[in-house]
Design brief:
The complex is a heterodimer of chains A (109) and B (347). In chain A, 52% of the residues lie in helices and 7% in strands. Chain A has five helices and two strands, in the order H-E-H-E-H-H-H. Chain A has a two-stranded parallel ribbon with strand order 1-2. In chain A, strand 1, helix 2 and strand 2 form a beta-alpha-beta unit. In chain A, helix 2 packs parallel to helix 5. Chain B folds into two domains: 167 residues, Response regulator (Rossmann fold, 3-Layer(aba) Sandwich), CATH 3.40.50; 119 residues, no CATH class. Chain B contains eleven helices and 13 strands. In chain B, strand 4, helix 4 and strand 5 form a beta-alpha-beta unit. The radius of gyration of chain B is 24 Å and the shape is globular. Classes of the chains: A mainly alpha (109), B alpha/beta (347). Chains A and B meet through loops of A and helix 1 of B.
Chain lengths: 109, 347
Amino acid sequence: MDLEIQQRVKDLTEKYGAENIVVVLGGSEAEAAGLSAETVTAGDPTYAGPLAGISLGLRVYHILEEEIKNECDPNVYDEQCGMMEMVLDVEAISNEVRSIREQYTQFKD
Amino acid sequence: MIKVVHYLNQFFGQIGGEEKAHIEPFVKEGFVGPGMALNAAFKGQAQIVATVICGDSYFAENEEKAKNTILEMVKKYEPDLFIAGPAFNAGRYGNACGSICKFVKENLNIPVVTGMYIENPGVDLYKKDLYIISTKDSAAGMRDAIPKMAALALKLVNNQEIGSPEEEGYIERGIRKNYFAEVRGSKRAVDMLVKKIRGEEFKTEFKMPDFDRVAPNPPVVDITKAKIALVTSGGIVPKGNPDKIESSSASKFGKYSIEGVDDLTSETFETAHGGYDPVYANKDADRVLPVDVLRELEREGKIGELHKYYYATVGNGTAVANAKKFGQQIARELIADGVQAVILTST
């Protein structure tokens, strides 16, 4: 996750409170999505950005996870995400993001 | 307490990306970025007292000056240990880490440790002089790299015995050590041979160094009659990048016609190369692939002719194995086309 986006997540969290933030990721493969998820929960694993050593513990999901898909209008979801849902490894991405979420988010809901 | 000075580039120093790569070296007290993880990994046995941050381009373009400035900065803190990086697969950063580690070691006589991906160009340049922890090719490998770097650094500073590359996680330095083996040499050799004949895996005790020596070709007899081709790893492609050559870790190369082209312009050509500031290459691609100058030389009769195709790929993070494959294919085609000499350019 690049420095600017880390800073934005940090600023928004300070402004609205961690309990009011959900981060929805769109990365196209599992490792990258996992790193982003880790950045907004445990802290930046690459120690390069503003979230290095800062554990926000935010709720984080990938757009292709069931939890997010179920929240969306099926027609809109299909139009916007249907294509990527077919070509990406949804299971690997979901498993990776879920595993990070379960380990590091401070909101167990 | 063991005092440590840590070296970082502008990115890991949290200053910025490529747009800040020109910054001159400066010092921050205490740890920055990956230093936080490093400090934690020292578990109270050592502490980062200062961090030197320098832009990758600045270091590459002013190496001697940068080295001396940084050495003075490091000296002031009288450290017991110097750590640089890890640089993963970033070429300029790897070279900077290797170069400054060697310089600090030679001048201050303290242990130094850095970390790089095995294909980082800094590895071949400095692995004989330094302990370079073997890392993944991206910052995703920070978590694995840091504890290894910290552990090896503490061993070095405490004068403890350093184990083999496999045990400690550093890249082989080509150093051989004597030890008492339980089984005598002839038996070990026969065991190995039997395994080899059976097609089983075996581990040699006498690794041959991997020399990548390229014998130079004989000089071009008469350059004014020679057909010259341009080949670049600087990613210059026709505008729109028709073959979609990747901006890093290229899986292919492109072959493009420059027949009748006198000058590459921002309307017709651009660079596909990531990891460096592309503004000047996009404004005038001749800066990377000098078609304009070669056309002049062609007109003046200083070269025979410029080959009507050029070849391009992206060098950024591209695997050595892929690069070799591209090179062989390109060379075969160039020879078949009667090209006598090639000018290779990069970013």
